[in-house]
Amino acid sequence: MAILYALVARGSVVLAEYSATSTTANAIARQILEKIPGNNDTNASYSQDRYIFHVKRTDGLTVLCMADDTAGRRIPFAFLEEIHQKFVRTYGRAVLSAQPYAMNDDFSRVLSQQIEYFSSDPNADRINRLKGEMSQVRNVMIENIDKVLDRGDRLELLVDKTATMQGNTFRFRKQARRFRNTVWWRNVKLTIVLIVLLLVIIYVVLAFVCHGPTLPSCL
Questions:
Q1: Buried b / exposed e across 58-80, counting CB within 10 Å, b at 16+?
Q2: Residue ranges of the V-SNARE coiled-coil homology domain (predicted)?
Q3: What pLDDT, on the 0 to 100 scale, is given for residue 197?
Q4: Phi and psi dihedrals of 196, rounded to 5?
Q5: Distance (Å, rounded) from C-alpha 87 to C-alpha 49?
Q6: What is the pLDDT of residues 117-164, one digit of tens each?
Q7: Would you say the C-alpha torsion 184, 185, 188, 193 has a positive or negative sign?
């Protein structure tokens, strides 16, 4: 199963969660909730061992899931987007004042169903590609995880650098093309200078041979 655990929280207050297996995911998830800085909307991914914790925070509501590292990031973030929309549609402004686990009885079943769907149904990935809902994956927050979590186990921040790599590749190609053009023009100029110099040498030699004192004139 690609996605193994999920929760919905307001700040560090967990409102609903579900785990498909027995892990320490809930303990790690709570530390992530407590240590993520600021209140801005955030998309981030953190790795530990062979698991990745994906986080989406929008308008103060945080949706988090733990997935196998082979799942990539497109499917987990599609799952988080779907869970966020369902939760907001279902509970509206009630999430602003809800007590811990106030929505767990009902929404944990939704989490279970969506985990099963996004982990097992191949249509989950195709549908979200067509919708074009995954642009936020490119905006994964860049942070130093050592500043986010003060704990013994090292969690390494994963950053989606696709856009940056594409920009760097374009600039590299442009610079390489400019360099090749510069080198080509330099070679052309050098060749012209060498030809002119050779012609001058030939002219001087011919002039010396034809007009030298010991030889008759070439005319």
A1: beebbbbbbbeeebebbbbbbbb
A2: 126-186
A3: 87
A4: -60, -45
A5: 30
A6: 998 877 766 655 555 544 555 555 444 454 555 444 455 554 444 445
A7: negative
Q: Given the DSSP bridges, would you call strands 3-10 and 13-19 parallel, antiparallel or unpaired?
A: antiparallel
- What percent of the chain is modeled with pLDDT above 70? 71
CA 96 to chain centre: 31
Where is pLDDT greater, at 15 or 211? 15
Question: Is the confidence at residue 82, as pLDDT, over 60?
Answer: yes
SS (H, E, C) the chain: CCEEEEEEEECCEEEEEEECCCCCHHHHHHHHHHHCCCCCCEEEEEEECCEEEEEEEECCEEEEEEEEHHHCCHHHHHHHHHHHHHHHHHHHHHHHCCCCCCCHHHHHHHHHHHHHHHHHCCHHHHHHHHHCCCHHHHHCCCCCHHHHCCCCCCCEEECCCHHHHHHHHHHHHHHHHHHHHHHHHHHHHHHHHHHHHHHHHHHHHHHHHHHCCCCCCCC
Give CA angle at 92 (90, 93), nearest 5°: 150
Q: Does the reported pTM lie above 0.70?
A: no
Range in 53-62, 156-165, 205-214 with the lowest mean pLDDT: 156-165
pLDDT at 96 over 70: yes
- Return all residues near 39 (Cβ < 8 A) that are at least 6 apart: 60
- Residue in 52, 62, 55, 56 with CA at minimum distance from that of residue 2: 52
